[in-house]
Amino acid sequence: MRKRWIAFIALLCLVVVLSYAAGRLIAAGKLIELNEPGIMRVQDYLGLSAEQRKAVYAATVELVRARQELRQRVWAARDHFVDLIRDPNASQSDILAALRDLSRAREEMSINTVSYLLELRAHLTPAQRAKLTTLIEQGMCSLTGSSGACGRPGGRACGLGILGPSGGRDVPKNSRR
To answer: Whole-prediction pTM value?
Structure first.
């Protein structure tokens, strides 16, 4: 009976230590949670099967890990830029240098995202690949908003928000390349 109690107490101590360690890892950002809403939304929109999700799992984990770091860099660069803009004594060269830092951080995040999409594309069916291409085109049109963006009159961009229930099938054919 006494050995059982000792084993029970040892097991209880082990559980407490492991839960404490897991809590610290989560707080430190060492464990990656795959609930990045944008990534999950893209995977759902493309209709990835369980096998496809499993095939891109490692790339998704790496993307989420990198995005957490890159997002912090973008926010820090943005905050520094805004602080300089608010400072009446900041020089133009300091402001432009901060803007370049912000642009570099955003560029790294964009490159990271496109690298993931290229990895994802390798595991897609032709129909899913076409959907992904249309989604990327619409996102780029939304960002640039150029005249006649995505074939829309008046330069109205057709970003991800207008996909709606049609899934982007309402985008004119001349806007797809």
So the answer is: 0.58
